[in-house]
Amino acid sequence: MFDKATLIEALAVLVAVVAGGLAWRRFHPLSFWLCVGFPARAVWLYATWQHVASACKLTHKRRRWRVTLDSVPVLGAASREATAIVERRHLRRVEIEKAPRLGLIRPSQHGWRLPIRLNDGQIPDDFAKVAERLAHAWRAHAVRVLDSKPGKVVLIATRKDPLVTVPPVDPTPDDLLTVRPGVLENGRPWVIDFKTVPHWLFAGATQSGKSTLLNAIIRGLAPQPVALVGFDLKGGVELTPYVVRMSALATTRSACVRLLDGLVSELTHRMADCREHGVRNVWRLPEELRPIPIVAVVDEVAELFLIADKAEKEEVAKTSVALLRIAQLGRAFGVYLIVCGQRIGSDLGPGVTALRSQLSGRVCHRVNDPETAAMTLGDMDPAALEAARAIPAETPGVAIVAGSDGSWHRARSALTTEADAEAAARANRHLTTPWAHLVRTGPRALPDDQAA
Ligand SMILES: Nc1ncnc2c1ncn2[C@@H]1O[C@H](COP(=O)(O)OP(=O)(O)O)[C@@H](O)[C@H]1O
Ligand SMILES: [Mg+2]
């Protein structure tokens, strides 16, 4: 039928097309996805939706009038045998399964967005519960539910974990007290803005990526007009490399108490300044009076609360009270906290739960037990807890990030080594405010007290 030359030619064309496709996918995966992968996926997804929705129990049973064709045997006049078969139309009530209606699917860099109209009686949570099933059915890495308008949900699917490789990010945007330590799962930069969320809790097991995140933050803050203060009771091993950019670093318990006393005293002075000028926070003070913002980093908070003997009990109590005061007053008066730890639970001592409730920004890396994830993320969306428990050990630095508004993201810090952060600290050592200039000690009468 075909001669040999035509066959060889056809084979050569096929090989060239496949090789070209593979090369395209390899060297420009994004355009390949948009032009080839996504359209194919979209057609398949619409074609299989009824079946997938039914398997995920997202369909509703409905009774509908339907015209059906029935085969009716026609009996001969004299015999009992059917002599012919005729088809008759019948109007019948039949039960059908109605899948929620799909909207227009749209591609994104890492997957797709699909709006869906809810069936009567459905809520977005019905979709959240089966998100993992949907992800498997669609061969996606993950499916997340975005609650959009009443009666509608938007599902966001990601093809593969976008956090396996994190592209380099510029750690310091132009805004004061804002850093970009990594990327979010949706491909956007992960932004930490201390002005909106002043205090942060970074939780995670050892080797989960806490120190790397801290490095990224120190690298981001180092070039800014911000004072850094450190508390590191693990002998200073974590924070000493950055000491040139720190106004103070406490590595013993008594030094911690002194430093915290200094910070609380400075807070009192800032409070008095604000009262004198009739303003609510330091940002509204006249520029020449506006104090430098302070970011205090506590590495391994459990060490601060550990009581070895009776003598330490009083120091621990003082520490706890001072930290709580800083957390309560810091937002208005420009002192921000980052507290790192494997877990920060009430078992550490009284005052810890109150402190935790003031740390409104939460970052939960891989943790050892589900309770720690729940403790860190609080009463968030159960899907956030599930995502925290599912962080694999092979991707240190991946974390669930929760802001104070209840939204959450999967994110990963950019790999920032101690050497990177140390280099940034050295390069910006001229910005370090000496401790003696940073805090004002001694009593300060508040305006009301003077009047009294
Ligand atoms: N964001 C990241 N990307 C890639 N590797 C990371 C990341 N974060 C941490 N790691 C790796 O994991 C190791 C342990 O991280 P580290 O920050 O020291 O954990 P922790 O302080 O929680 O014990 C690091 O040495 C680094 O190799
Ligand atoms: Mg560490």
From TrEMBL:
PANTHER family for this protein: DNA TRANSLOCASE FTSK (PTHR22683:SF41), SPORULATION PROTEIN RELATED (PTHR22683)
Lineage, top ranks: Bacteria, Bacillati, Actinomycetota, Actinomycetes, Streptosporangiales
Keywords, in A-Z order: ATP-binding, Membrane, Nucleotide-binding, Transmembrane, Transmembrane helix
Native species: Actinoallomurus oryzae
SUPFAM superfamilies: P-loop containing nucleoside triphosphate hydrolases
Name recorded for this polypeptide: FtsK/SpoIIIE domain-containing protein
Keyword Cytoplasm: no
Keyword Nucleotide-binding attributed: yes
InterPro entries linked to this entry: FtsK/SpoIIIE/SftA (IPR050206), FtsK_dom (IPR002543), P-loop_NTPase (IPR027417)
Top-level lineage group: Bacteria
Positions annotated to bind ATP: G204, A205, T206, Q207, S208, G209, K210, S211
Bilayer-crossing regions: 6-24
FtsK domain mapped to chain residues: 187-374
